[in-house]
Protein 1
Amino acid sequence: MTQHVTRAAAEGWQRESIALGCDYNPEQWPESVWADDMALMREAGVSLVAINVFGWAQLEPRPGEFDFASLDRIMDLLHENGIRVNLGTGTASPPPWLTTRHPEILPMMVDGTIRWPGGRQAWCPSSPVFREAALTLLAAVADRYSEHPALALWHVSNELGCHNALCYCDVSAASFRRWLENRYATLERVNDAWGTVSWSQRYATWDEILPPRATISAGNPAQRLDFARFSSDELLDYYRAEAELLREKGSTPVTTNFMITAHIRTQDYWQWAADVDIVANDHYLDHRLEHPTSELAFAADLTRGVASGQPWMLMEQSTSAVSWQPHNIAKQPGEMTRNSLTHVARGADAVCFFQWRASVRGAEKFHSALLPHAGTDSKIWRETLELGRALSRLAEVAGSRVEASVALIFSWQSWWATESDSHPSSAVTYLGQVHAAYEALRSAGVTVDMVEPGARLDDYSLVVVPCLYLVSDADSAVLSGYVERGGTALVTFFSGLADETDRLRVDPTGCRPPGAFADLLGLWTEEAFPLKTTETLTLSDGRAASVWSETVRLTTASAITTFIDGPVAGSPAITRNSRGSGTAWYVATALDEASYFTLVSDVLADAGVPVSGLPRGVESTTRTNDTHRYTFVINHTMSDAALDAHGIELLTGERVHSTLSIPGGQVRVIKQERTSNDA
Ligand code: GAL
């Protein structure tokens, strides 16, 4: 497990407040607009802006020829206006001169086709030519601005791996081989890890190994898994090269914007966390999901997990619609503030947006911004001002930590491996199962910490393990040890099945599915019976399920419910096992929302975790520091809600003696002094 150390979070960008910020692309506007921008930013309370993210073609119009005049003026102007800069290194997208001179840096897709310039991020992560050119630019940028008084934070590249994470070119192939040599040392071990005895795939020399390019049949899943690991490591290595150069030039904190979100899964951010001085995330509501707001809370909790519980930055979100989904849904009145404060409630100490002024040209001209096309007489601008006021009233919350007594084990590597080809059911998606577990916990009013496999679990009353298909012996031993010492775990189907090489944990001497967790759960599964998409099943206690069923054979566990219909009628569906001083629950199917909620409520009661009792759609989390507790209550419903509480409500300044009312769609934050009992 990686030990995460975020440095310098307290210096540079972070003040005694929650920053309001945005991407700012002044180069898209005549300079005559800049003064207005400054005045309006000050009015809104914008204190941190990201500039120069895509600056390369302006800064270096021809190879080796730099023009900093415009960026100098912007840096100075921001400084004069008391606005701090999150300075992009400018390397996110190569300028046309570079791709014209060096077309070999262009990324190659899985089918061997090239992605051409004309969009963004068209570069191969393994390209030494790209890296050299980018570091040349960066050295010039760092020399010029590392002592600038406006500089608060370095913003390396942009969303590394958003578009170019997987490159299959020959340069990547050579780098992949080096990575494999480093991981396995011998070709024999690669052959073993990839199970190349199947389908005549045995490698005799290193140079026969390629990236997993498109194949005529199903490809090798272990090769794909290692390529996913390699590709994440490759961009991390690239990030490190930029960060190292910046750290040689000064002590300003360095970060990059992660994409902890539902639609991008290319980076294993558990591996990245130790290399950023502050964890920063970009999050956009995804209206292709069933519960976009739940996913927002989930992503915020996962970002906090990646930050090891320390405050983090929301580096980008949108004020209203984005421009890259099939249907770009605009935000309802109040939604932007509510969503922003949901991030704060879950540990964000900065709320930033893409972007300041809505563009009129280019691919993002229909994307919302703090200052919309409609100007200041608009819902969006009024809400921008409202958010600025809200964040200033919450200033004292900065630096506090979120309390949670339940953990959920999250793994990007299990995500990659679960969704391999040739699995029992394409309806078993990693995030689908993880989100379902999370939504049940959220509906029960429980705050969840996301932890990586192998993390210390002893401080949690309950650990939820959804769809942890791939798990190492060491990481599974941590979970078993936690339960044996008195913890409670809830494990879901399709967990524990494979080791790190995607080899199923089955051996002739007796290990049977669910492999790593069979002893812990006190059962084994005889056969999986995935369900047709339209099929739903009923359990003996009336709960409803779909997607999956399996024949469960109990060893030491007891059945809580059984399937009463479907292919495994009579087989246990939910089980409970006493193990050492603790308890391990198992659910052998995908419950529907109402059923999952009741199961989670039962398991929480078993684990002694109090539930909030708030109505569905009203969420509450608490941040604490040495002296105070700040309880955020976010009412996503349109009905008023109420809660027993006393203390000062920070957004309205009211003193609350017994009942806190939270009007429909609004947020309230109660501040209370900590007592000695809170410790
Ligand atoms: C992000 C990106 C921004 C902007 C934004 C639009 O992925 O970092 O530059 O494109 O999306 O939603």
Protein 2
Amino acid sequence: MSVDVQALAARLVTETKRRRTFAIISHPDAGKTTLTEKLLLYSGMIRTAGMVAGRKSDKAAASDWMGMEQERGISITSSAMQFVFKDVVINILDTPGHQDFSEDTYRTLTAADSVIMVIDAAKGVEPQTRKLFDACRLRKIPVFTLVNKMDQPCRDPIDLMAEVEDVLGIQASALDWPVGRGREFQGIVDRRSGEMHLYTRSAAGGSAKPEVTTELLADATPSDRLDEATLTSVRDELELLEAAGNPFSLDAFRAGAVTPVFFGSALTNFGIELLFDAFIELAPSPSARPAHISEDEEITIDPTDSMFSAYVFKIQANMDPRHRDCLAFLRINSGRFEKDMTIRHHRLNKKIRLSRPHTLMADDRGTVDEAYPGDILGVINPGLFAIGDTISSGGGGDFGFGQLPQFQPEHFARVRPDDTGKRKGMDKGVSQLATEGAIQVLREWNDKGAFPLLAAVGRLQFEVLQYRLEDEYGAKTSLEILPFACSAWLRGEVQSFRKPTSARLVRDQFERPMVLFTSRWEKSYAREQNPDHELVDYA
Ligand code: G4P
């Protein structure tokens, strides 16, 4: 190997090791945005965290940037942010917490190497957390748990740990423990070092780091700060955990079998730096990824392989109203990316020069000159990329990372332009948004000329669609919700399928037959009636 090649290979190893690519998942309102903001604050990316009271009016968190997100205070699309925290390159994939965005969220999770799950200490494991967690379990992604809002009236931490175990079916191991709760929440004991950190809110409140005093719990004595009862109860609880709690093992965590649990308050910053430090220490850097070379043959591709490879996990149009374009988001799985690099698009078997890739810190687009495994590239997409596409610098054998599941839609509608003159704009917008994967466009099986049906995993997708059709394509539309409640892809001979009368046979955008049902009962009935066919929930 020449010196240059050797130096480059060494650089690839170092850069891969110092990357952490992850997503924060939570039920809406548990504190994901606040935690993201604090990570930006602690890394020096922002000087003061926007006081939350102002956030929903004028000061949006950096990751909430679409007009509608700000109006509603929910995060609709996934953005990617990159920054350096304590010499580690952080890539955060922002997954929307709203229940209607599950498909997009599932795909985004395929690009994450680990996940921080935020739970509200008063509410415990909520439905959306459970759904998102299931998606993590499918891929055995290591999950950190933050029990947030300890500064408010909350449930007993031991109960919360038990709930995580029962509801999510994973072992929970507390790596730290709260000192006091609610209004008396004062600090955190780091169980691994035995140190107790007591915090005082700074004058700037949660927008700056709190003052902290640290001493060994074993040496602590009651003081003006900490009364005897609180000290005794922390010691008792920790003794109980020592005897009856789950031990933490890095291997079990990396295999997705145990979740380390942290307590804190993202709003006041208590305990948050301890979580970030543990995250840097324990979260995995990018590792080998499976790729298919044929339908039933798989290889693994190591991140430090000299071949550059990446796949598209998300497509998004018009993030920035000043640039009416469409971005494909790629996650790098191996090798080093360089600006102006020529790569091979595997599906199209075509060489392409990647000239304008961006890393994304919300809408503040920076152009990248180089990028490494775990990094997310936003590439201007002139209709070349579809979700699941693989690209690489490898000249030879074919392989693909893109086995991204597509989930059965449960909501169906027709949209019509209010002004027929806007039909063209609407059609363009609909097909663009379908490429992004947010909605699916279906056609009647036997009537190709009929107006298309739209299908989505969640109903809010339709509202987003209407909002974006008007905002970005100038087409005001009306929506007719259709009476179907679930669907399935049909496998087997279409002619001999015995379709219940109120069900409808359609084709999806890949010409696959699909059946829409008015109820779950009807779907099970169709299954019984058609033992030689398969009705599958995801394709
Ligand atoms: P999300 O992204 O998960 O949806 O949650 P987000 O961070 O926006 O937080 C939701 C609300 O919870 C915010 O209040 C936020 O200030 C508050 N919050 C987050 N972390 C903590 C915490 O550790 N302690 C306390 N006490 N509150 C916390 P908000 O913007 O005022 O919204 P709202 O209360 O009016 O809904």
